[in-house]
Amino acid sequence: MGGYETHGTLKAHALRDRLLNANTPDVPIIVKDMTAYRRWLDPLLRDASREAEANQEARKQLHISLALLPWTPRKWSTSTVACLPPSVGGAVIRDALAPYRTSCFTNSGPSWLRRNR
Prior knowledge:
It contains 7 helices and no strands. The chain is mainly α. It folds into 2 domains: 72 residues, no CATH class; 44 residues, no CATH class. Helix 3 packs antiparallel against helix 4. The longest helix is centred in the N-terminal third of the chain and has 20 residues. It is globular and about 40 Å long.
């Protein structure tokens, strides 16, 4: 069992580092890779979140929030999301939040988060 725990711990640290240094469009792939390592990642991501918040690192905070979203959907206020740029990362954010739209927003959110149909 020791080898299993060691592997999980090492993989979780590597995934956390990938997430924190990633370009926003790459985050969904990393989040998918994180699934099997959730139990090791949760404390690492929560620590990284506190550090990113203390250092006012918005990109890291965004990446961590997107990584935690499938396991801990939280309320994303429309005003908070509205201040995020509808840039390259906008589509990533929109797609990540789509399954949680009804549980994360009291309304449909800013217009750039909605897909054009």
